Amino acid sequence: MTDQSSPTLPGPRDPDGGAEPVDPDGDGDDGGSIPPPPRPAWLRGLARFGYAPPPAAPLAERLVPPMPDGPGVTPKRVPPSPLLLRLGLSLPAPLWSWLIRWSGWLGPLAVALFAGALRFSDLGSPNAIIFDETYYAKDAYALWHGGYEISWPEGANDRIMAGDPVPYQSNPSYVVHPPVGKWIIGAGIQLFGMNPFGWRFAVALLGTLSVLMVARIARRLFRSTLLGCVAGLLLSVDGLHFVMSRSALLDLVVMFWILAAFGCLLLDRDHTRARIAARLAAHGGGPDPALAHRMNLGWRPYRIAAGVCVGLTCATKWSGLYVAAAFGLLTVLWDAGSRRLAGADRPYLWTLVRDAVPAFVSLVVVSAVVYLTSWWGWFASSTTPNQGGYGRDWAVGRSTDYPWIPEGLRALWHYHSTVYDFHTHLSDPHTYQSNPWSWLVLGRPVSFFYESPKQGTAGCTVNECAREVLGIGTPLLWWTGVIALVYCLWRWAARRDWRAGAVLCGLAAGYLPWFAYQQRTIFLFYAVCFVPFLVLAVTMLVGALIGPAGASRDRRIIGAAAAGLVVLLIMWNFLFFHPLYTGETIPMEDWRRRMWFNTWI
Q1: Which one-letter DSSP state was computed for residue 46?
Q2: Residue 202: enclosing H or E segment and its boundaries?
Q3: Residue 74 dihedral angles phi and psi, to the nearest 5°
Q4: Which stretches in the chain have pLDDT values below 70?
Q5: C-alpha pair distances (Å), 481 with each of 142, 474, 531
Q6: What pLDDT, in 10s, does the model give residues 39-49?
């Protein structure tokens, strides 16, 4: 994510956001209308005791707060750190200045490398087809070799794990998820072969890249490189994200594209607001109602990129449809806030008139085109029965009231109608299914793999051991996340903090729709789609613990110590559960010590 500096007052921002003006008009933006309304009576009363509210930032800075560091923000020569000097450490001035200038990339990259080392370490273990890998690894192989999913003969898994030739055949199989996630999984198979490392490679790569993205997103969201690195570190040690990064399932791919779409919209917000600030500067620098009304926000490539990402989300799993709706509403509300700051007296009306249609095209039309394109392998397959994708021949020779619709589209529509019926009526009981009410507290995790090796087998050195890959988040991170969500709700409702609203929007898009399907067979690992936003909420709470930049030295020291303790406890908790995330052989007694609740067994 590129840096976007403000036209004025470059410098670091308060990580907690407390120094930013509260929006008195309730428009969900990071600044009040101009001119500001009269202060309430209670605030005037405080003024008698010497209280003075922080001065309002210039309009350009309220539109685009400055980034904390980077080219165009950090001076070419940065003074040495007093702390390092007290410790007797001194770096050459050019090197120190370069490190500070590029810390916005160097810090997140370092965290991503750490996450990648965790995820790729012994990626082929367990050397087995775990949980739903039995579907997606084979479907991925079939897509790359024939363009559509196929039915596999009995014993195919055993032959694959034995290293025998893959028993590929051309007869199609009925599948209920679009192809993009399986194409991505298949890329790793093409590179490294039809084996556990091969079919997990691409997902592990996306898991690593998502850590880099969340670090950069948090940095841009909170205007703090430190908090960006904290967010990346927390995501890298979340157990559910870690397990899903090492499993050839679709949900981590869904999470990746949701996060990418959110990042693109965040870039679009800054880029668009910088353009507004430049236009206002050309007309005197203050709010201009006439300009705010007629202003065309122009070509918005980042929002189109977000539409592509949303399309790829939907083309992996249909749950991306809810993301399209939530993010579409989010970007339109951001545009309304931008026009309000620019001086529009009816910002929602003018946003509806000028911005709603381009937003619809960018997010909905673009994503629909991407979705249809993702089925190219199915469209290109034969219409001869049992020689092409499942249902590809359905419309051949079939009468219709809509002859102008191509046969391929009609056949795909029919296929999708059967898939929709499958998803809405899936209610087969499963040992590890769970209700979404229990997800945030990790009520019922999913066991992807389990063995009970005896002494002398699989590295077991005692009478009885256990090997398990358990799909569960890092408990202390998720339980802290519940507190953080309450904090974000308060920041959004009481302080009109747009950043809290953005985090809650992303989490709601990935979480709340599942409450409409409580009778359906659903699992905790679906929650990986909103884990980055849970991490962003915890990061915002960490920023609040550290305190605003203008706080006293003692307040900042105590706050930083408390925040550091939270992060360290979460990292320790991840290490404690690490054997359960990787299928490591441990004594049965050690396994039982990690089963904190009966519902985890």
Answers
A1: H
A2: helix 196-222
A3: -75, 130
A4: 1-55
A5: 40, 11, 10
A6: 666 666 666 66
pLDDT score, position 86? 80
Q: How far apart are CA 378 and CA 412, in angstroms?
A: 9
> Using an 8 Å Cβ cutoff, are 421 and 414 in contact?
no
Q: Residues 458-494, buried b or exposed e (16+ Cβ, 10 A)?
A: eebeeeebbbbbbbbbbbbbbbbbeebbeebeebbee
d(CA 523, CA 85): 52
Helix (H) or strand (E) holding 417: helix 407-424
CA 6 from chain centre, in angstroms, equals 26
What pLDDT does 55 receive?
67
Cross-strand pairs, 150: 172
Place of tokens 């959004």: 492
What tokens appear for 466 in the block? 């256990």
Q: Give which of 170, 199, 163 is closest to 182, Cα–Cα.
A: 199
Identity of the residue numbered 478: W
Write out the H or E segment, with its range, that includes residue 465. Answer: strand 465-471
What tokens does 78 get? 């940065």
pTM of the model: 0.90
Q: What phi-psi label fits residue 57: left (phi over 0), alpha (psi between -120 and 50 degrees) or beta?
A: beta
**C-beta of residue 557 within 8 angstroms of C-beta of residue 239:** no
Give the pLDDT of residue 4: 42
Residue with tokens 């450490």: 89
Alpha helix segments (H runs only) across 320-401: 320-342, 347-354, 356-360, 366-374, 376-380
Q: What is the pLDDT of residues 526-546, one digit of tens each?
A: 999 999 999 999 999 999 999
Return the pLDDT at 121.
96
* Chain centroid, CA 46 distance in Å: 42
Please report, for residues 30, 243, 260, 509, the alpha-carbon distance to residue 120 in angstroms, rounded to integers and kept in the order given. 40, 11, 22, 29
> What counts of helices (H) and strands (E) characterise the chain?
25, 3
Local structure of residue 146 (DSSP, 8 states): H
Q: What is the pLDDT of residue 601?
A: 92
